[in-house]
Design brief:
Helix content of chain A: 25-40%
Distance between the termini of chain A: 108 Å
Number of helices of chain A: 14
Number of strands of chain A: 21
Distance between the termini of chain B: 27 Å
Strand order of the largest sheet of chain B: 1-2-3-4-5
Mean pLDDT of chain A: 87
Strand order of the largest sheet of chain A: 3-2-1-6-5-4
Structural class of chain A: alpha+beta
Largest sheet of chain A: 6 strands, antiparallel
Structural class of chain B: alpha/beta
Radius of gyration of chain B: 13 Å
Oligomer: heterodimer
Chain lengths: ~525, ~120
């Protein structure tokens, strides 16, 4: 008789959860469920705790007759106390007399509870949470009660799981999107990146970043936080912020990694991450790179053979207390592509790592020059079946040929100046200039640009245009143009700027027009030093 | 392990020696300015600015050197600059005639001998 009643009640419960699944937000669904359970079982309290992402803590998410549990944000370590024991053993726990049991949550006693019954919430055998009910009077719960609560728990677990996975997917997408950077746009430099989430669409720990440094060079990083899920992704976000902060302070790569390792050990003891950070003068070719246990970057000289950089062995970030990361310095030929990747791209179950590295190298050697197309070719060749168990990231950079004439536009701000003179330097080198020609013209042009930035626009945003060409006779003309209202340079500072422009070139002409000012600098290549 | 590895300060007796490296340009000059001015202690008699490792110096960097010379002169302190021959930085400082406000030397030893470090 009793079991028939219980079955009817379970059917009620089922209808609620089924209907609720269709439209109720998760919190409302859980509350609705608990209300019914309190009624069906004739208890005073009911509560649901869910396992946190770190899988070591239960957090109260919904409660009836015990609302403070949620309001106070009660958290119970797995393995301890009443709810903790249920999660750890995956078995129902029945307490007849609370006085004889050690609980973690003081609320249970404060509320005057006497008897408790709790069941694990299981999805595919894994604990996702705990549901428990309680009474003020002593009650010995029957096997039927336990079975009813467990079956209600199963339904709740399914509902929670489908809600969580849906919400997790949305959050995961948003988080991953926020962690994939918008790559900087640099004149005559091509940058491309790819991120492929793992097949299960879980959040991964792979990331990359690229950003201009104050001295006009480019900072680039790629890394892999060990583990998956929100926690790994959150750590990745912290590492990314830390890396940018240290990098913008002008630190060389090895020092950046040393600090990041210390940061990671403090934020997340026991967690490790691999990372390559490098500083590249995309125009001059100078490269400084350091690695924390990450697969080596690959360089591909234009028309040459790709090769992996010979990086000294190193430990991942967070793996050791005192750690020294060595900077590797080298000069890349103009037009050399630099390719960074994570192991998810080159590792395949059932084959040695070398096979994946060889496939990447061959794809780059025979692949298209354009980096966006090359990125597609790499993904097609290395991950032909789409995403795998692991996520994968790829970041590439290459200086583009500039051609006979140089034309580029920059935001009218001082940070543009180092980028501008490095770009001009590369064009001059390609045009046959000597190191002294390059030094002198780059500095003279930087002075002209500083004039434009400081005097043409005031505080309004503007553009500075750089043009350069070379005559048959070997005379280079550099024109720096603004589109603002020129006001007379003030102070000895800019006076010295003009002095330098004149001293370092063979001719300076300042042309004022209504639509802006152009400074033209002339220099015969290979002239005697000033 | 300095957050700004491009500037080091050293003291030789009562002479402050500031060594700069790499690029001294409009972007970072203001940060260098404060540290240069702050390098001179009350008991110092002179300042030596070593530019041996500097590869780029623009008009903002030049102006900081002139300002430094003026401030030191007001306190009857001497300024010496170490500047190897040849290269962009020497061309720049010759064009603006830094020699009119500071003693220019080819080596740190020469500069220290001159200002009495």
């Amino acid at each position: 008789m009793r079991s028939r009643v219980a079955a009817d009640r379970l059917r009620d419960l089922q209808q609620i959860t089924d209907a609720a699944l269709a439209y109720l937000p998760l919190e409302d669904l859980l509350n609705e469920l608990l209300t019914r359970i309190v009624e069906i079982l004739g208890v005073e309290t009911a509560a649901i705790l869910l396992l946190e992402d770190d899988e070591t803590t239960l957090a109260a998410r919904a409660a009836k007759g015990l609302e403070e549990e949620v309001e106070r944000g009660v958290r119970i370590p797995v393995g301890r106390g009443f709810a903790g024991r249920i999660a750890a053993t995956r078995q129902p726990v029945h307490i007849v007399n609370l006085d004889e049991f050690e609980v973690v949550n003081p609320l249970l006693r404060e509320r005057g509870l006497r008897s408790l019954l709790g069941v694990p919430l299981l999805v595919e055998g894994a604990v996702v949470g705990v549901m428990h009910v309680g009474t003020l009077e002593t009650r010995i719960f029957s096997d039927d009660d336990t079975e009813l609560l467990q079956r209600a728990g199963d339904r709740a677990a399914l509902a929670i799981f489908s809600r969580l996975t849906e919400r997790e997917r949305n959050l995961a997408d948003a988080l991953q999107r926020s962690l994939i950077p918008r790559l900087p746009e640099l004149p005559a430099v091509s940058l491309a990146g790819r991120y492929l989430p793992a097949a299960a669409a879980r959040l991964g720990g792979d990331w990359y970043d690229a950003f201009p440094l104050p001295d006009g060079r480019l900072g680039m990083a790629i890394g892999d936080v060990v583990g998956h899920g929100f926690h790994a992704a959150a750590i990745m976000g912290q590492l990314r912020s830390g890396l940018r902060a240290y990098a913008l302070d002008g630190m060389p790569p090895g020092q950046v990694l040393e600090r990041l390792s210390r940061l990671l050990r403090q934020l997340e003891p026991g967690r490790t991450a691999t990372l390559v950070y490098l500083v590249l003068d995309a125009h001059g070719g100078g490269l400084a790179v350091a690695s924390a246990g990450h697969p080596p970057p690959l360089v591909h000289p234009r028309g040459g053979e790709p090769r992996y950089l010979d990086m000294p062995g190193s430990v991942p970030l967070g793996a050791a207390r005192h750690v020294f990361y060595e900077d590797q310095r080298l000069e890349l030929e103009p037009g050399t592509a630099l390719v960074l990747y994570t192991d998810g791209l080159v590792e395949q179950a059932g084959e040695p790592l070398d096979a994946g590295l060889e496939r990447l190298s061959a794809t780059i050697r025979d692949g298209p020059v354009d980096l966006e197309h090359l990125g597609d070719a790499i993904i097609d060749n290395l991950l032909p079946g789409g995403p795998r168990d692991d996520d994968a990231a790829l970041l590439m950079v290459r200086a583009l040929p500039i051609g006979e004439e140089l034309t580029a536009e920059f935001p009218a701000e001082v940070e543009s100046i180092p980028v501008m003179r490095r770009l001009l330097g590369r064009w001059l080198a390609e045009a046959g200039a000597t190191p002294a020609d390059i030094d002198d013209l780059a500095l003279a042009s930087a002075e002209a640009a500083a004039n434009a930035i400081e005097h043409a626009y005031g505080l309004a945003a503007g553009i500075v245009e750089l043009r350069a060409s070379r005559s048959q006779e070997g005379v280079v003309k550099v024109a720096v143009r603004d589109f603002g209202n020129w006001r007379q340079p003030r102070g000895t500072n800019r006076g010295r700027g003009l002095m330098l422009m004149e001293g370092l070139t063979d001719g300076v002409e300042v042309i004022h027009r209504d639509e802006g000012t152009t400074v033209e600098l002339l220099r015969r290549l290979g002239r005697e030093a000033a | 392990m300095n957050a700004q590895p491009d500037l080091t300060i050293d003291y030789h007796g009562r002479v402050a020696v500031v060594s700069l490296a790499r690029e001294v340009d409009i972007v970072q000059a203001q940060a260098l300015r404060g540290r240069l001015l702050g390098a001179v202690r009350n008991e110092d008699l002179a300042l030596v600015v070593d530019l041996s490792e500097v590869t780029y110096l623009d008009s903002v960097g030049v102006s900081i050197l002139f300002e430094l010379a003026e401030r030191l002169d007001e306190r009857q302190l001497r300024l010496a600059v170490v500047l190897p021959e040849g290269g962009l930085v020497e061309r720049v400082l010759r064009i603006v005639n830094l020699g009119s406000v500071a003693a220019v030397h080819r080596s740190l030893a020469d500069a220290l001998a001159d200002v009495g470090g």
